[in-house]
Each structure stands twice: as C-alpha cells, then as structure tokens.
Amino acid sequence: MAAPRAEYGERVPKPWNTFSSWRRRLVQRAVHSGWAWVQRTGSVTAEHPGRFRFGSIGPATRLAFPLGTVFGEPWIHLGAHCIVGEQVTLTAGLMPDLDLGPDPILRLGDGVVLGRGSHVIADTTVTIGSDCYFGPYVYVTSTNHSYDDPHEPIGKQWPRMEPVEIGPGCWIGTGAVILPGARIGRNVVVAAGAVVRGTVPDHSVVAGAPAKVVRRWTPAEGWQPPLRTPAPVPIPDGVTSDQLVALSELDEETAAALARPEP
C-alpha cells in the first residue's frame, strides 16, 4: 500500500541534509576564495608571464585566467593597460612553433579591452589600434577558407590570407565577426553580430551581415542620420567621487530640484 498522505495542516518533514547551513556557507566561501586566488595567480602580466614569451607586453596589461588558446607569442605584441578577458584566444601563425620572421604578426595598441571568449586569429598581420573595446565573443581573423576546387574538401584547400586593421577608439559589439582584409577606420561602432569585410570609414556605425554603414559623422553635416538621443552630459571638472556617491543617493525629486536653475 502507498504511504498515507499528510493531512492538511500537518508539517511534512524535510529531507535530512548532510551539510548544515553554516557548514555549506563555509564550504562555499572557501570555494569562491580559492577560485579567486587561482584567477589572480594564473593571470598573465609583464611581471608574471608564466610560460608565455610575448614579443612585448606593456605595463599594467593583464590576461585573465583561464586563458584561451595562445601560441606564436614571440610575434604577439601587447600594449600597455590592456585587459584580455577569460577564454580569449590569441594566435600568430597557422600553427605553433613556426618561424614567422622578424616583424610582429598580431599587435594590440594601448588600452585595448578584449571581451570574454573573443578570438583574434592572426595568420598574417592583424593590428588593433589603441583604446579599442571589444564585447564578448568577437571573432577577428586574417584567414578564410577557400573552395575553388569543387572536388577537394574545403578544409584541405589552402586558405586565403589578408591583413586586418582596426583603427583606434573603436567599439566592437558582442558576437561581431571581422573578416580577412577588413580595414576599419577610427572611432567606428560595429554593431553586435555584424559581419565586417572591406573598408569602413572613420566615425561611422556599421551593422548587419554583411555590415553596411547605417550612420556616419562628418565635420560639415555632423551625424547623419541624426542621433535619436541627446549626448550624455559629461561630469564637470572638480567633482569628487564622494559627491557623485552622495548625488546617486538622492531621490529623483530632490535631484531634479537641485538641477533647476535659480530664478
């Protein structure tokens, strides 16, 4: 016979837990603290490069742990104050242990941020200018498969390679793909999921697959089409961090009253 049901209002006993709540919290805290220590210790910097021998790595640049695939480091040059997120792949050459000559193959300028899970595949020259920010899972490659021979598997055909250049100050959105031969200008926004090939002019926004210019700035006309939202108001000079914290704690009505000019 099935066990009798508990009557309404009766308390059903909870299953016994091996760990009490306080023991579980201690174990959880220990696990998180240990993983944080592993991340700090495993990260790569100029002072602590580990097994990696980059062509150059600037001060305050850090590659987060765990790293993605990294090889061809002697031909990879990283600028100063770069942030390379977890699981980012950086490669120079088709495979490890190749002699690629005297010049850098993959070069990052100062202040570059590569988001988690991004890939930069430099079988021939890839240059990323200073102050470029990449969202997560961006894919940049200087190599594409060829399919000229219809009788040969595509993976066995010799690939085509073209240099890639990304100008300074760009923002590359999540999941964007930068194809061989791309020449992206200065201060360009690449929308999430865009597939970029060819030349992209300075001060433009591109979106789509293949990516097309959807907005551009020129000295004569400004942004065309015009921006739909007003530009952010910069923080005035001389404002301290404590003042900003105090302002953030004000309710909306008080903040609006303070912002109104005096009569």
Automatic annotation (TrEMBL):
Instruction: Name the residues that span the membrane.
Output: none
Query: Nucleus: present as a keyword of the record?
Result: no
Which Gene Ontology terms of cellular component type are present?
cytosol
Q: Which UniProt keywords apply?
A: Acyltransferase, Repeat, Transferase
Recorded GO MF terms: O-acyltransferase activity
Q: Which SUPFAM superfamilies match?
A: Trimeric LpxA-like enzymes (SSF51161)
- What residue range is the signal peptide? none
- Return the Gene3D superfamilies for the record: Hexapeptide repeat proteins
Q: Which family does it belong to?
A: Belongs to the transferase hexapeptide repeat family.
Q: What is this protein called?
A: Acyltransferase
